[in-house]
Every structure is written in C-alpha cells, then in structure tokens.
Amino acid sequence: MPGFRPASLSILCCALLGLPAQAVPTPEYELEPVLGASSLVRPALLSGPGFQVDPHVEIRGYMARFTIDTALGPIQAESVEILGERIAELPALETLDAVSRSQAFVDAADASVTKTAHGLGQILRHPVQTLTGIPLGVARYFGKRLKRLGNQAQALSDRGAREFGSSGNPHPRGDGPMTQAREIDRAEALGNGSEGQSGWYADVGDEAGREVKRQLKYGQVRRELAERLGIDPYTSNPYLRERLDRLAWAGSGGHFAASAALGTIGGAGGLALSWSKQLNEVVWKLDPEQLREHNARRLRQFCHDNLLLRQFLRRGTFTPSLQTALIDALERLQPKAGGEALLELAMTAHSELEARYLVNALQLVGERLGERAKGGNLLTVGAGLAYDSVDGELVLPLPIDYLTWTGEVARFLDGEEFRGARKTVLINGTATLRSQQELTERGWNIVVDARKQHRDGLASRSE
Known about the structure:
6-stranded antiparallel sheet, single chain, 18 helices, 13 strands, alpha+beta
C-alpha cells in the first residue's frame, strides 16, 4: 500500500490494548514497497493482445521493476519508461518474428549463412549489459560526491595510457576489423579506392573481403528495418535485438529483401511507436562511426576536454541513441558551464537505466524552464545532477518512478548545496506522503508527475 508505515499496525494494536500510542516510535525512514502495477501506470499498459504485466511491482532504487509475460517469453522492464517502450515494441516484435518464420527467410538463412552470421555478426553489434541479480535502480545518484575522472585511471593504468587508448588508437573500443573496413568502404564510396590502406584483411583473399562488405551492408539494413518499424536500432530488448539481427543479416546477403518482407505482414508498414517520436532520426541514417563524429561536433560546444569527450562517445554505457538524446537535451538547455562535470557523471553510469536517468533529468529541466533554461549552470551534487537557472531558481530533477523517504535521500537533500531559498524538485513519478512532507519542511517547491504535467500544459495551450 503506498505510503504505509510498518508502525501503523503497532499503533492499532496499542489502541486495542489500551496502551498509549506515543509508546510506539515513528520510524525514522521508510522502506521501499511492493506496489500494484495499476497504481503506477495506466490500464492500457497492463494487458493487451499478446501480453500481460505482472500485477506485483517491486520498487528498487526508486524505480519500478515490471515483468511482462508475452507469447515469446517474459520481458523485464526496469522502469515505467522502459515498460512503455517494451509494450510499444510488441507490434514490431510480432512482425519481425512472423517474417523470420517465413519460408523466404528460411530459404535465405541456410546453414552456412547462419554459421557466418554467428561468427561475424557479433563484431558490429553494440554491446548490451546483461542484468544480473537484484536491480539497484538509480539509488546511486543519491550517493556521496563522485571523484573527478581526471584523477582516476579507471580501467587503465594512468592518464598517458588513457590518452593513447582514445587518441593514439582512433578506435579504442575495439569494434574489431569492421572498424577499418568501414573506413575502406567510405574511401571507395568517395572514389579514393583502397590503395595504400593496410589492415587485417590485406592478405586474406576475396572471400573474406566479400564478408567484410556484407557486414557493412548488415548495419545499413538493420537501421533501415528499425526505421521502418519505428524502433530504436540500439534497443536492449533481447527478443527484438535477436530477430532484428537475423533479418538484417539475411537481408545483407542480397538473397532476401528484408525491408520488403515487412510489407507481407499486415499493417507492418504503418507501425509508429511512441518511442520513435523521441528518437533523433540521425540514429537511423548514420552508421555508428558517422554518428559518433556527428555527436562529437555537437558536443564540443559544451565540453572542451577532448579526452573526456572521446571517452564518453566510445567507452561508456550510453548507446548511440542515448548519447544523441543527451546532446539533444544539452542543446535545448544551452548551459554556460557544467558540461565536463556532466560527462564525468555520465561516464560513471553502470547500466542503461542509469544512463537514461541523466538524459531524462536534462529533459525534465528543459520542460520545466522552457526558454528560461538557456544559459544556466549544470551542477553535480553528490552523485546527482541539478541545474542553476539564470533567474536564480535551483532545479533538482528526479526522473524516478517512486520516491520513498530513505536515509540516503535524507542525507542527499540535507547537503549544503540545497540550502538556498528558491528551489524546485521535479519528480517524474510519484512520492510518498512522508517524502512530500519532508521536502516541504526543507523549503522545496514540489512538482510530482512532472512530465505528465508538462504534457497536459502543452495540450491545454494547443486547444
């Protein structure tokens, strides 16, 4: 039950026994609850053709963890936002599954193709972190102050090694031979040929060269399929990724028209998912290397540390889509300071959920302040993010599903950075009554369900 305190039962027992209620101390903090899914999301996201959401939802690290039962198997969604995306992806998933079982696909994906795809298909795929154990949500962002990355060697031994890894080697993430193959392919497209180029493929013969070219086509076909379906080409949905990979590989061989095959499934061409409206179309149009170059140019106006910029674009957990979304949000805010601190914080993200937290935090600030957002300062407060607007309002975005008054939240909000008079907290989801009372006592202006309020305000102005 939302807002229920364990002491409530004890108080009731004392009343029945005639004991003074004051003998039962009020708990200092709240525990994160297990809630009914219907208390967090609208009914349309709980059940529908081909899916059913488990009604019991655990709040862990201020985020709701859902389980979606589908005909293809259970799908985990680590937040309300991701739940919406996974439900929106279901029509595309069903379409891809139907195409992958068609006779045309079976004929194209013979044993040799499948074997080659298994061996080479791993090279170009963007790595997705597998969730293991109990999810931690985004509690880390309420933690202690982070050390600056400039003073840390991270996984490498020293700054010199980091410089070499991001500068001496132009492709430090180790995309493999396909990284160089992309450069060869781009050079040939410009009419420069490949003379003078050297690489792993120089002496391995024509057959390997054809496989390299096919890998290049694979990436293009995969993005085209994703655009046709209106989905993120870097989605972490395991069922969707698997089928998208299989169709893209078959389509890259020239024996199977993957994009055309979608038209054989009723309604496939008209799929338009809610998430696609938030995607910058460049994630469909540019290959990963081109997208990094494009985003690097945009990001340089906010970050003057080239090493940090390259690390963010090549080493972090942000997918190309999330990198692009973060830069989109930065361009809307146009902060005059704090870009480096933001990227340092972004480099510490351990999961897609944490990466999304930072993107959504920036978006919440932009939605709240509108034109007033431009020219403020991004602030890292502890391990979290805040924004100091030009007119003196301190905005704390909390893109979480459910705020419970825990010890870490109390310590975070009692920090000296939050002692100013004019301050607003933006909570994307909801908060317990206790949390709202504590925030009010500390002088916060509270906006609950902030993103919905923003959408409702836009709708009312358009009427």
